[in-house]
Structure formats: C-alpha cells, structure tokens
Amino acid sequence: MPVNRVVLIRPGETDWNRQGRWQGWVATPLNEHGRRQARKLARFVRNIGMTALYSSDLRRAVETAEIITEHLPFEPIYDPRLRERKIGEWQGLTLDEMAAWYPEAYDRCINDPENFPVPGGESRNDVRKRIVPCFEEIVAQADGEAVGILSHTTAMKVLLLYLLPECDEREITFTNTSVTTLARDGERWRLVAVNDVMHLEGLETKSVGELEYGP
To answer: Which residue from 197, 215, 210 is spatially nearest to 12, judged by alpha carbons?
Structure first.
C-alpha cells in the first residue's frame, strides 16, 4: 500500500528548550514535562492509523519515539539523516549569545542561511541534502498508508519548503510534540494540519526563536 499521509512530529521538551538554548546534535534528554507531552502524544498517535515511525537518532527524539511506540505493534526506525541541523560551536547558546559572541558569522548566517554553514556545523542546504533523500526513501519503501517522521524544527522546515515551496516559513512554527500532517494528491503533497497540539489538552508547549531570522 503506498504512503499517502505523513505525520511530522517534533520531540518533547528538554531543559534546553525551556532555556532557549540551541541543541543541535547534543544528547539532551527529555525533562519530566517533555515526557508528559510525549505520553499525551502517544495516546493521540494510537488512533490515527500510523503504521510505522521513522525517527532521528538524537536522544530527545529517541526518548519521544520510545514513548510513542510503547503500545504500538512496531518499533521506531532510527535514521541519522533526520537529525536537527548541526550547529557546531553554537551548540548550547541562546540566539542573543550567538549574536553577541559571533557577530560576523551570525550576520552572515542571517543573510545567507541556505548556504552559510554554522561554524563547525551545517547550512540549511546541507540539511536538505540529507533529509530530502531520506523522506523520498521512506515514502517509496514504507508499507502502509500513513507513516510518522519524528524530526526537528529546522530539518522539518527545510523538508516542508522542498515539498511545498509556496509556504511562507515565517508563519510556520513547530512546538514540542506538535503534529504536522501532509497528504499526497497524486504526485503533489498538501498540508492538512500544521503544529497541531490539541492532544496536549492545554499542556504547555514551547518553540525556540528561528536562527535564520534572528532573535
């Protein structure tokens, strides 16, 4: 059965999310609030007909994926290509700290986010080169109409803009454990829901400021 629906999921909250610190590839664990978010997400996921979950192998994603699939008849499939943007020397910094400590590099990153790699890290183009082939492999090979992809803010935005170039990314936010649903119409994808957090039933969820546009 071909994949006709993809559910993009962001991991639960970590302490660094709460502090506004950029995580990149660091192994930050979920905090207790993030685990509560993931448990509520798990109850929602059980009812949407998802037949597989592909996940980033970063710790916060792995912990979220394990909670989601605890009562599902399949295990998560981990793929490093679904990781967040690698942010090298800026890992653990807030946006204000990046701008103050690395003003020249930060300015270049703001003005050319697609091509400028963070010092010791990646550009958005670098992220695109790994996540797009990963997505295409998933929808080509997965068995089942609906699959989940658990990834991270910049990675999911890059993917979304590739699939739907008409989107205005400044209007798109992914908060912790949010669900964004894509449906396929023939060869094209369309957005069904963006940043859906109804499953949290009022439980607080956060997003961090966008690196590409500054604090």
So the answer is: 197
